[in-house]
Design brief:
Helices cover 17% and strands 35% of the residues. With 126 residues, it is of the alpha+beta class. The protein is globular.
Length: 126
């Protein structure tokens, strides 16, 4: 009955600007907009809903409670990393490899934590 995540929401002081950032930097498509809310969709069908925020942003450290980051899968880690560097994306560290997976953490224009990931093999299914 429960199929998995349909989308994740991010509250932003400027939803249009953030939606355009995902479009311009991560090749997402702005697929729906209503009342200042934007849905952006990745090639694999994953979606992010970007909604207007209220109030001040709290702490946003890597291990704060709550959702901390989401990962963007890439076919070619080096090319993806280079493309983001060319666009001036803020990286939070250097690329590294763990358990064969290549990773690098970065932030979107609102400071939300994201990472690129290239896995040599998919995680096991259920």
């Amino acid at each position: 009955m429960f199929n998995g995540l349909e989308h994740t929401a991010i509250a932003s002081p400027d939803p249009k600007r953030l939606a355009e950032w995902y479009r311009d930097n991560l090749e997402f498509h702005i697929n729906f907009e209503y009342s200042g809310n934007y849905f952006v969709r990745g090639r694999n069908g994953s979606m992010i809903e970007i909604i207007p925020s209220e109030g001040e942003r709290g702490s946003n450290k890597m291990k704060d409670p709550g959702i901390r980051h989401f990962a963007i899968e890439v076919d070619n880690f080096d090319a993806g990393h280079a493309q983001l560097k060319e666009k001036g994306v803020l990286f939070l560290g250097e690329p590294f490899t763990t358990s064969g997976n290549r990773l690098v953490f970065f932030a979107d224009c609102d400071g939300n934590i994201i990472h690129l990931i290239e896995r040599p093999a998919p995680l096991p299914g259920y």
